[in-house]
Each structure stands twice: as C-alpha cells, then as structure tokens.
Amino acid sequence: MTRQYGRYFFGPDVARQAAEGLLGLERNWQGPLKGNAQIEKTLEIWAGMESRDARLQNNWRFLMNLQRAYFTVPSTIAHGSKPLSERFPSLRIRRIRQDCSTNF
Question: Which stretches within the chain are classed as H helix?
C-alpha cells in the first residue's frame, strides 16, 4: 500500500524509496530515541529522494514527510547524540522556512 501511495503522489522513480521512508517515519517512534539508528536511516531516505528529484520540492506531501524526518533528528540530540551536521556531513541540511504571511 505504501508503494502505491509513493508511486501515485511522488512518481514511479521514487516509489520504493517513498514506501521505505513512510514506514521508517513510523518506526522512528518505536523504542527509545537514544540509539535509535532508524531515525538516521529515515532521514537519509527522504534527503536522498530530495536530492534525486527536484520536482518533489513543489510537492506538499513530500515536503510534509521530509520535514517529519528532519524534525525527528533534533530530538535525538537532546539524548546525547552528535549534532546533525556532524552525523550527516554529506547531506545538505535544509532550512525549513515558515510562511508568516498567512491571512486569516
């Protein structure tokens, strides 16, 4: 089912990685944060998809899951891990911007 979701919303080229990434996001919450290697693997999957397919930068579903992967990692830093930039030197550390111009 996750592969079908990935194929439909992200494209056939990244369907398998999307399925792994979606399941990884759920596995991130299993067990204690400290020492959970799944969190880093999940981020590598989503960041890899980001660098392989520029079209995904305009896909809100992709960006939502990418942000989930990025936001989970800092929570592990509080539990004694190295900073994100040291653990992932090859990744382009993304700056998540908030759009504060929303009109209500």
Answer: 2-10, 15-27, 37-52, 60-77, 84-87
Report how far residue 1's alpha carbon sits from residue 78's, in angstroms, rounded to the nearest whole number: 34
pTM of the model: 0.71
CB 72 within 8 A of CB 28: yes
Q: Which amino acid is at 25?
A: L
How much is the average pLDDT of 87-97? 50
CA-to-CA dists, residue 20 to 32, 51, 80, 100, angstroms: 21, 16, 26, 32
Separation of alpha carbons 79 and 60, rounded Å: 30
